[in-house]
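Exercise: predict the fold of this chain.
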Amino acid sequence: MSWMLSTPPLVARFVLALPRHSELHATESGPIQELLVDQLRDILHAEKQLLKVLPKMAKAARSTQLQHLLQTHLEETEAQVERLNESLQILGAPARAKPCRGRLG
């Protein structure tokens, strides 16, 4: 079975379509941008949690193919964290993860 890498999620494509930080003005920050920043921070937290657990899962995997796939997923997750950090920087927000209450239970 062959696996193909997927394209970035819709959120990442949406953020890339936003104007660059130099094109944004402080007065343009509204409720939609605040919601976007909040959601990006939630996603950043989830991705960082994956960065902690994926190496452990790969080490525990018995199948070589599964180990390889988990390692690939780890690399993709690292790139995703980078993109999220860049997206938050473009939006002029600190790149700090925010735990989502819904995911915490």
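Check your answer against the key: The chain is about 65% helix and 0% strand.
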